[in-house]
Amino acid sequence: MRLHTLAPLLACLILAACGAYQPPTPARSAVEQRQTSMALERRPTLAALGDGPTPAPRPTSPSLSELLAITADDPRALGDPAAPVTIIELTDFECPFCQQFVRETRPQIVERFVATGVVRFIARDLPLSELHPSALAAAIAGRCAASQGKFWPMYEQLFRTHDTEWGGYPERDSKLFVTFAGQLGLDVDAFTACASDPATEQAVVAEASAVARLGINVTPTFFVNGQQLRGAQPFKAFEALIEQAAGGDSR
């Protein structure tokens, strides 16, 4: 494929998400495939195990819920904890494609599936600070609002006002987030103390690091009952996955 025909394809692949593009793994040649097949045919047969000591079990990988510290009373979760489908959103408040999802798709998911008990929707932070200078400060604001039970109002406020009231200037934007806290009815002193506490930033960074261990570096990224979906996809893409995961229980 020539370069001038490849460029539009790459543009489409990264069009709906913020972050780094990961090129696809090149296909193996026919020679490589034949060599692999021959090697497998000649692989040695393992001897049967005797009565020796039982090998130690391999450590199991943590589940998504364990890795992202999701609980039944999670302050950044919306919907019934017993819902048959869980959607985890990995988001960056300064990412325009995350904002697009929140404006266009998320309201339909909430109305159709969260409000009816089919979906539990959970947000987790993946601030791409190299691209978005105020993303970390915004994530801290969201976490501090969550500590007062006001995460979702702050979430909505941050996405609604990005690019019109804040963005790109962390010191200025952090002060505006305190104003948002007051407008949303939070205890401003407690919010300010939380936002200035190094432990809060460390918690956000630790969460982003946990996400990075999954090999994810674009936002928004979603897990629908563990199945990954990248980018600001339309409602139809979520609807199909939700109904499949719900096993007909779409209520």
What descriptive keywords fit this protein?
single chain, about 250 residues, alpha+beta, Glutaredoxin, disordered N terminus, about 45% helix, globular, two-stranded antiparallel ribbon, 5-stranded mixed β-sheet
Question: How would you characterize this protein structure?
Answer:
The protein is an alpha+beta fold. The protein has one domain (64-246): 3-Layer(aba) Sandwich (Glutaredoxin). 47% of the residues lie in helices and 11% in strands. It has helices spanning 3-14, 30-41, 64-67, 96-104, 106-114, 135-146, 151-161, 170-183, 188-196, 198-212, 235-246, and strands at 18-19, 77-78, 85-91, 119-125, 218-219, 221-224, 227-230. The strands form 2 sheets. It has a 5-stranded mixed sheet with strand order 2-4-3-6-7. A two-stranded antiparallel ribbon has the order 1-5. Helix 6 packs across helix 9 and helix 6 packs across helix 10. It is globular. The N and C termini lie far apart (47 Å). Mean pLDDT is 84; it is low at 1-14, 21-29 and 35-50.
Number of separate strands: 7
> Total number of helical segments?
11
Strand order of the largest sheet: 2-4-3-6-7
Q: Roughly how many Å apart are the termini?
A: 47 Å
What top-tier CATH class fits best? Alpha Beta
Average pLDDT across residues? 84
Shape: globular
Give a concise summary:
The protein is of the alpha+beta class and 251 residues long.
Set down the secondary structure blueprint.
Elements: H1 3-14, E1 18-19, H2 30-41, H3 64-67, E2 77-78, E3 85-91, H4 96-104, H5 106-114, E4 119-125, H6 135-146, H7 151-161, H8 170-183, H9 188-196, H10 198-212, E5 218-219, E6 221-224, E7 227-230, H11 235-246
